[in-house]
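Collaborator request, handled under Task 6.
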Amino acid sequence: MDRRKALMQIGMSMGYVMAAPTFMSVLQSCNDKKETIWVPKFLSQDQGTVLIGLVDSILPKTDTLSASEVNVHVFLDHFAKEVMPPKQQDQFKTTLNQLAINALNSSKKEKISDLTAIDLAPVMKKALTDKKAKGLPFAKKIRELTIWGYKCTEYVGEEVLAYDSIPGQYIACGNLEELTGGKAWSL
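Structure tokens returned to the collaborator:
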């Protein structure tokens, strides 16, 4: 690896670290119980529909909330607009468009607005596992950003991970199972 690439990657990772608190505040401020229609700020409405289906196919609702229920799609839209360089923004949009086309072809549906997470899951899985998948340069990055955005939400930090808003006593050699019920600590 040459120095320029290494410096560029270090710079990008620092940008991600510095931008995370801003975007987490966006996620935390979107906890309204009212049903609102999300209007993407960076993506088109169709790309936003595909993004919602993709994040729910990556992290569906189980005993925890799905990715769209904690507004990961809103985070990704803002992240793409504010943090990604133009080349990555283009790859992001291109990948969403191609995944939508592939899902429409495989599901025999005619409109993007009719696509669901169930329609998009096999297409995304193929994009991640098939080495010959062309036109999908950003599928792996979408999955990584979805998981990162989900793990950084207030819901996961307080409800899924072990959370103590004001640390209590210091126990140097405690058993994780006894202290947190086997959960990792939320930071």
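The cover message to the collaborator said: "Residues 40 and 48 are 6 Å apart (CA to CA). Residues 3-28 form the longest helix (26 residues). Please let us know whether this matches your experimental observations."
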